[in-house]
User: Fold these one by one.
Assistant:
Number 1:
Amino acid sequence: MADGRSLVRRKAGARLWLSALWLGLLVLVALLAPWIAPKDPLAQDLFLGRLPPFWMAGAEPGFYLGTDSLGRDVLSRLLYGARLALIVALVAGTVTALVGATLGLLAGFLRGWVDLVISRFIDIWMAFPPVLFSILLIAVLGPGLSSIIIAIVVIDWTRFARVVRAEAMAQGAMDYVASARVAGRGRVSTMLVEILPNVLPTVLVLLTLEMGIAVIVEAILSFVNLSISTDDPTWGGMIAEGRSSIHQAWWVLVVPLITLFLTVLAFSQLGEGLKDRIDPVLR
Amino acid sequence: MGAGMADLYQVRDLTLSLADMTRKPLLGAAPRIEILRGLSFDIAKGGIVGIVGGSGSGKSTLGRALVRLLEPSGGSVTFAGRDITHLSDAELRPLRRRFQMIFQDPMSSLNPRHRVGTIIANPLALHGFDRVQARALEALDQIGLPRAFAQRYPHELSGGQRQRVGIARAIAMEPEFILADEIVSGLDVSSQAQVLRLLERLVAELGLTLAFISHDLSVIRRLCNRVIVLHQGRIVEDAPVAQVFAAPVAEYTRELLAAIPLPDPDQVWV
Amino acid sequence: MSFLRILDLSVRIKGGPRLLRGVSLTVAAGEVRGLVGESGAGKSMIGKAVLGTLPRSVEVVAGQIWLDGVDLLTLAPAARRRKIGAVAALIPQDPLTALNPSRRIGGQITDRLVDILGWTREKAEARAKDLLAEVGIDNADRVLRAYPHELSGGMRQRILIASAFAAEPKLIVADEPTTALDVTVQKQILRLIADMQARHGTALLFVTHDLGVVSKVCQSLSVLYGGLVVEDTAVRPFFAGPAHPYSRALLAATPKYTDPEGSLTPLPEAVLAAVQAQVAAADGGWHG
């Protein structure tokens, strides 16, 4: 008999490897930035402002991707920017996932008053407009890396909580849970041993999406000048900076934008690819 | 009541109602639907009792009350001399090993992320058995699957093989009683025959008591010594299997029997 | 002349194994033919091929499907859909998912008549009422305004039967129409299908795993294993003694309350090995 599942098995290979390759490269670049960056990302030289990238006429040797209006090297800023982007993605993504998934799992599996409390809490939380909420938060906490991370966690944990709650409820209705009960397994133990492995792939996919979202949120906050100090090289800061000179030096805007786009795309594709790979049911 | 020592289960005036969430008013409690409306019967040690009925008859609910996945609303369920009607999860835990259950849908009852070996071994470890791994493998021997299957995931097995793993998980616990809830209704006739023959052999060899819930009277006829027919939450017939089929007392039993399409073009079936 | 004639039909998973291996069968006008086999035998796949509802992952590699004098496989997709819509219909397996839960029953019956056959709305509605009465639903007006979840499983299956007969098709494919139902309801539904079939003279391709059901509603049957028709015969001789060893074993494995000792015989290994060899041999003669 033909196995129906193998029919729908998606060819995960290419996108998984391409996205892993891009993100691996990014991690490497972030780690090695001080050594491989051709220039000091903060060094200004107004005489070298708005230099074009290497393939255009008027490029200066050593400034491979040109310079911005203050004469700072775009490539070096991009490389250092990867550090901040990745730290935000990893830390904010992981903490958001931990907080949200834990609450979702408790609500979805234990049900009863635990669910009631957590679900109402989620509803109320989601009624706050997220952008205003984050701006308010940073205004209170003051700008800085940890503020951005806290803002992302505080705004986005509900995304995990809701999805994981629904998934845990669906899994909780399966007979293998009843079977664990017949075997005399306790509630918390059942949640950890039986349910958790079945919601992990979902959490993982959400986590990679969240990492992408975190990168975007950081960029948006930088863009509106609410991130880390404006001097520090962040992709969002670079995009904001590039906007002012879009007609004279488009590369200042476009280069970080493409990098940002590819990174967010890579995160989401990594999640989908990993899901196919680690899921024994789909494999 | 004067229950004999040979009775494993004594069920007296069992009622069970569930909240009907679809009719819940905006404020206040949901109305309750009575699923079981006062059932009394005993299950003697040894042998196979068939529990039969249509959908909505309450047969699965009764089964789940017997293994205390559900708590009865009224009446009593006594297992091996102990009243288990309202025991808490913690009080039930030491007893759980002694009554096991095999589920209808083996795809849903086997955790898709655990290997077969783990699925059989987990309950054993929970109850402090020694030689857990060895026992799990022996259980595979008993149900006639190669030991290498311990390394497989449920989705790598056929329907019949999955259901045999469900049986292995139950018998590995060395229970006195097993509840089998529609365990062959999703299987092809060929694997159905295999699973039922296996079950029959194990019951005889291990001296088990089995309650076999099914909607299929032909299977019940082949497998059981005694039949309880449920209709709308009440017992309408409870008799030795030969008697039920030769001279059914209840109107509903007669209807059920008459509705079965036998593989025989000459059967009167109007 | 057969209304439906399938010739040497082979279907496979794209780039994968074959699901049907040179299936041939005929259904005469007004004939009821059973398609019997275990899961994976390909019985539903035949029904899907006839109705043009094969899944995207599957392709026809060879064969002809002559429906009402036309080979469907030579028609362009749009023409094929029109042809099938005009002469054939389906009674699906699951009455729960076969009806759109967010639409009233009425529209779900009449849409086909209006859209495909170009009837007026009034004519279609009158027809729907007649049909509901015919399948034993008394308060047709109320049911036509109801949503599926307001009706019982048996009632929904009656509606699907009414809907299948609505456009007076010449052929109906019934895909395990009673598998989800209780025996007592199954009996009513089977009788209803048989009555409707006889009254309308519709040919019926009845897909089922239950030999008991076949013996009640069919005149002829094709037994399938691994996408291969292993036996094609009339019902009476079949139940008197199947010709193919696999059919014999299948009949023996079917439980019968009248013969408890004789029923539930697992399929002998030798029989399975032989029929699997037959399937492999069918693949051996096939290139592509």
Number 2:
Amino acid sequence: MEILVCVKRVPTVGGAITLTADRRSIDTKASGFTISPHEECAVEEAVRLVERFGGSVTVATLGPAAAEEQLRACLALGASAAVLLETEPGAEVGPIATAAALHAVATGGAGSGGPFDLVLLGNEASDTGDYQVGIRLAHLLGWPAATGIKALSVDEAGISASASRTYRGALETFALELPCVVTVKEGINLPRYPSLPGRLRAKRAAITRVPGPDRAPAQDVRMTSLRVPDAPKKQATVLGQGAGAVPALVDVLVELGVVS
Amino acid sequence: MTVFCLVELDGPAGAGGAAGVAEASLRAITLGRGLAAGSSSTGESGAVGGLAAVVFADPGSEAGPGLVADLAAYGVTDVFAVSGIDGYAPLAWARVLQWLVSDSANPGLHASPDESPYPSPASWGHAVVAAGTERGNEVLAHLGAITGLPMAANCTQAVDNGAGAYAIVRQRWAGLLLEEAVLEAPVALLTVATDAVAPVPAAVAASATVHHVAPSVDGGDLAVRAVETPAGAGGASLATARVVVGGGRGVGSADGFAPLEELAALLGGVVGVSRVVTSEGWRPHTQQVGQTGTKITPDLYLACGISGAIQHFAGCSGAKNIIAINTDPAAPMMTRADYAVIGNLHEVVPALVIALRERAASAG
């Protein structure tokens, strides 16, 4: 089974988000970079499928040259090929252009090693949260898609998949024929830690670099500026210490109407 | 312009009982109403400010007139009740929305024979709004893909500046960051953040007309369709719970959650957890609150032993009230809560459970 996993380099966000002076990006001078937890799970899911069915995992990203770091991290986890669709540092490519660029990779272009049986993505990128790249990619490929998936099983023959998620407390299960696009969420599996041989292999692995889309993508949502929402200026009312606070706590619960 | 709002219903679909409009959809309708009312665009018909709801259910049988009344209270003037699509099929739902905003697509669609003709959707305008839920984001992404239109997810504001240009504010980083953006499109596709826009009924309720539409959908559009089954014990939804009792690292173990479960049951709520709890395997990921878990909007979030990582706030900042119990008074969760109890949750929670039990017993 040939599987393509699409990931995105994003800043590691710790205590608070700080913006650059032009308010068009996050100040990353002091931050590291990573991929989202959803995407770590997508890589893990792909590696598990290949362990079962044979084949290989290719990982692709659209981003600056530095995104090699994230591709190598995925190689260390068990991917065997990596494609970097290289963009200018700081360039923000919208979801429509991103899907189009990934489409070229998914159809076997850019030396990606396709054709693929399955394309996995995170449900949404943790930074821009556009919630649409996977579906747009599926339409370009003419493949079925399922999103927000937290359990995926592929039948013995590798022909069809069953993908499920929870929705309003119920379980929704979608049946899909392969090839298909599935976007996954954290919780679908518990990603492994990279092994030492994996890391050594990743360090040496060749990464296919191809030019990504330029700065002027298709008509899409155009960001003008970013801002950090005002934190609610709350001064917590301290109800007391330890069990001694319980009577005051009960009064508050009554006041809020959750206890009659 | 007319704003078409995709409506999601409360309760498990197909349960047969009366279903209400999901709160996330009421939030979306509230934003859509503002967009329609503030519109400087007029359709060819000259109509301004129409607000239409699209419901994939038959209000005649499934939800009854109550559903239509609820929508009218939010200012909805037209309800399109779509029947004939069995269950949730994201691409088919998107096709129906596409047809509703354009007269050229899918001639197989038709109003039922007893229906009086309604204005040609093409002469209306020109936004489709859905809740920023799994379904809302998914359906609008399909609609964006089949039409080539851009789609803005998880908006908190939208203003029509005329000539197909919209000024929007949308969430990034699950709401930790806001993006101000321009959207230029003949039809604006927007989903609305589930935890940022308050659901507000219209000042004056509208009188809603119901239009029954029975589309003939291409089989290929139905290929991916949800089969729904109840999800395990209780199936209570974290996303819609009115009370959430949260547990974090301070709970210390899987066994440590028993008192929290008990407290949640007494308060008619559910348990939610921080990411460390699921990483440790103490609780399943379905209970995780935060950027990569569930966004909650309860009346009360009682956070026990949760320090309050920024990604956790992305999931709980929609709570109306937060009470934090923590040994560290300087923990972020304590400083951003409405009420704080300084202490060990293993002491406070059991004492609270006892107090609530005694209170219930003396009242009974």
